[in-house]
Amino acid sequence: MRPLVQLIAQRTYDAGRIAAAVRRAMERDGLAVRGRRVFVKPSFVYPARPPRNRGVNTQPEVVAGVVHALRELGAARIDVGEDCLVGPSENAFHGMGVLPYLRGLARPCYLKDEPRIDVAVPDALVEGSFRMPRKLMEADLFVSLPKLKVNMYAAVTLSVKNHIGLLLQADRLTHHHYAIHRKIADLYRARVPDYVVTDAIVAGEGQGPMHAAPVSLGALIAGRSGVAVDAVSCRLAGYEPADVEHLTHLGRLGLGPLELGEIELYGAGLLDAPGRRPLARPRTDFADLYPAVEVCAGTELACPEGCLGMIRGSLDRFRGGAKRRIDGLGFVVGRPVTRIPKTLWRRRIFVVGDCAREHRTLGTFIPGCPPHPMALTYAFLLRGIHGPLETRLLDLARGSLAHAPRGLLRALARGR
Fold first, then answer.
1. Distance (Å, whole) CA 199 – CA 193
2. 265 and 295 share a domain?
3. Structurally, how many domains does the chain consist of?
4. Is 104 found in the same domain as 8?
5. Domain range for 172
């Protein structure tokens, strides 16, 4: 039986209209919700108030619409779980301004502090066990709410890639290099979503995941099969699903079809809407930043999915007038690096990643395989280099203050 994927026209972030559309989609799919505990996972990768993040994060109105639909369909309990790259998980919810939308309907689940259980993945491609949130694994239904956008590390961010946000930040970094697609495929199998609603009302193109530019696509994409939903989403974005490695792994393993002929499509006309164009793909090279920035990369191993991507993503924050702040930066990354060009010696040098460790005395060394996504940003700050902060400081302060009492209680509990 072919899985149903629904393309739903939705041009605005109107929570009421989204709720009605999602409820109809779930009913059309025959999703049994009444009396069940539901875990909802949006994508708040770098939280900032709309409209700054329209092309980057699942929008609060989409979260609200889905939560309303689940309540109307009789969900017994709804937890909305997410983490934050900057500080405690509470920062994501305050930074996105999503908490008022959840009041009386769902409970925020702060993943950084959520108890974990080990989940084994049989016949793993690269990573056979993950520390998963207990609340997710005990839920009756898992609903994934990804944003449709391009991704310099993994080609696209869709429902399969959305799983990375379920992991503790240290666990995300293992195999976050040339093996990332295999890791993502393994992680997806640790807890396959029961339903997916992809936010493509405004999608993200260009320097995703962190700095994707907004593009209006005017659609929600919904269905039970995450792989099938992602395959349709890829085509909406101008990608061939077979060119996205983690999807090909899951297709081969029988987790869902990649070909449109094997999918029952509702609203297929949206794929060929007038004016539709492929989303611009991210750059992982540095030619457009030269001569402000010079990168000396290893000849055998320098991963766009890892250290090179972390460098490029950090530099992408410096746009317009802020770009002058990175003038004169140099980077050494990968292995082997047998020759350091003379032009690099005149720059402020950053040595990035464990592969380049032997050159760490040349400048600021940032260890890791790869380093934490914010490590370069913090290293820049220490060297007096700073770009725009898109998350409001007030939201970060509120998140940290909300976290403090819970953190203290946990510390006291551990001390008993």
1. 16
2. no
3. 2
4. yes
5. 4-272
Of 325, 62, 330, nearest to 201 (Cα)? 62
- CA dist 172 → 127, 183, 246, 306 (Å): 11, 9, 16, 11
Q: How far, in whole angstroms, is CA 372 from its chain's centroid?
A: 14
Per-residue pLDDT of the chain (416 residues; tens, 9 = 90+): 899 999 999 999 999 999 999 999 999 999 999 999 999 999 998 888 877 789 999 999 999 999 999 999 999 999 999 999 888 999 999 999 999 999 999 999 999 999 999 999 999 999 999 999 999 999 999 999 999 999 999 999 999 999 999 999 999 999 999 999 999 999 999 999 999 999 999 999 999 999 999 999 999 999 999 999 999 999 999 999 999 999 999 999 999 999 999 999 999 999 988 888 999 999 999 999 999 999 999 999 999 999 999 999 999 988 765 667 899 999 999 999 999 999 999 999 999 999 999 999 999 999 999 999 889 988 998 888 877 767 776 776 777 888 877 555 455 445 44
Tokens of 384: 């007096």
DSSP class of 290:
T
CA distance 31 to 355: 48
130, 171 contact by CB (below 8 A) = yes
Classify the C-alpha dihedral 308-361-330-170 as positive or negative.
Answer: positive
SS3 letters across 400-411: HHHHHHHHHHHH
- Verify that 299 and 183 share a domain, yes or no: no
Q: Which residue, 272, 303, 336, sits at the end of a domain?
A: 272
CB 352 within 8 A of CB 333: yes
pTM for this predicted structure: 0.94
